[in-house]
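Priority: medium. Attachment 1 of 2:
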């Protein structure tokens, strides 16, 4: 099968290659999925599990990509809950070969059924941004109706999901980003927008929750706008600052079948709009990841036409 592999961490996306690899075999509780569309996040080439296994042993050449939508072609011993021929989407294990390939072996528990009226490209684009936003807002942030949430990067891939889900949940949503992102953030549902280059973040008043994708100084400054007992949730790594009598949580997204199904239903109902940027074929994937400018929206590799 065709697959993208990486072997050199220092090379980043420039070290990606399209090669022939053996088709994977299904272990206990696995399924084999013929991948139709795959999502990729450039940051994953900095993640240790891309390069080493759980025992810190080198696992290159490894296949990156963790988001997929496709069709089940085989079941491993003991696998239940899915069937051959079923359309699925989901998030792979971090330390196993990923989704930038024609086929993948993946634990069945990491997949959810993909409704027939949701395109494979949309399914793949929904997985990590949708789960990240859902878990950050509701599991870790405990966001409720009537609360105020500050969403950094509100026009970005994850931020735009957070804006839409928070707004639907009845929260008041303030988005942030660069000035050029204002209109997009408002169109995704933000009720206010803070231009981080020109507006004073501290002028927005007090919020119950900050959903952070930026980290660094912006995340630290955000603590000052959180109400006593509020929460800062970030995906940008540990942050020492915390709100008064509140919590600071950094987390890594996990696959969840029930949440994936909830997200897919929202797409079907028109309640959730995707933020898809460049869509390329597997043959053109290396070039797609090495563009001079980082594309707006989620990059999706369409494995099958």
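Attachment 2 of 2:
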């Amino acid at each position: 099968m065709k697959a993208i592999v990486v072997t050199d961490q220092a090379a980043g996306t420039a070290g990606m290659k399209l090669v022939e690899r053996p088709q994977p075999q299904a272990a206990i509780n696995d399924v084999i999925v013929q991948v139709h569309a795959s999502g990729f996040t450039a940051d994953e080439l900095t993640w240790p599990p891309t390069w080493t296994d759980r025992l810190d042993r080198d696992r290159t050449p490894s296949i990156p990509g963790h988001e997929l939508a496709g069709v089940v072609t085989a079941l491993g011993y003991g696998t239940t809950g899915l069937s051959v021929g079923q359309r699925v989407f989901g998030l792979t294990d971090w330390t196993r070969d990923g989704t930038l390939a024609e086929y993948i072996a993946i634990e069945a528990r990491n997949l959810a059924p993909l409704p027939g009226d949701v395109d494979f490209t949309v399914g793949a684009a929904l997985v990590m941004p949708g789960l990240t936003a859902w878990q950050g807002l509701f599991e870790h942030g405990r966001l409720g109706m009537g609360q105020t949430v500050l969403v950094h990067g509100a026009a970005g891939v994850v931020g735009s999901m957070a804006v839409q889900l928070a707004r639907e949940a009845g929260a008041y949503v303030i988005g942030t980003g660069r000035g050029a992102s204002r209109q997009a953030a408002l169109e995704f549902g933000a009720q206010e927008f803070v231009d981080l280059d020109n507006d004073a973040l501290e002028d927005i008043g007090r919020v119950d929750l900050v959903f952070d994708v930026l980290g660094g100084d912006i995340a630290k400054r955000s603590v000052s706008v959180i109400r006593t007992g509020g929460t800062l949730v970030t995906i940008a790594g540990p942050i020492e600052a915390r709100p008064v009598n509140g919590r600071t949580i950094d987390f890594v997204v996990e696959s969840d079948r029930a949440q994936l199904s909830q997200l897919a239903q929202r797409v079907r109902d028109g309640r959730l709009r995707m933020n898809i940027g460049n869509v390329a074929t597997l043959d053109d994937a290396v070039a797609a990841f090495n563009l001079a400018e980082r594309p707006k929206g989620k990059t999706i590799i369409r494995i099958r036409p």
